Amino acid sequence: MSSQSALMNSAKEALFRVQESDSVPRTIRVIALDPPSEGVLRKIMDRRWNHAKFLSAAVSTHEQHNGWHIRPAQGLYDLAGSPLNLEEEIRNADLILMLATRIGNSHAAALIGELCSTSHANVASVVLDVICASDDEISQTLAQLRPWSLMVVVAKAEEYIVDMLTSLRA
Question: Which residues are CB-contacts of 110 (< 8 A; sequence separation ≥ 6)?
Answer without folding.
Answer: 73, 144, 147, 148
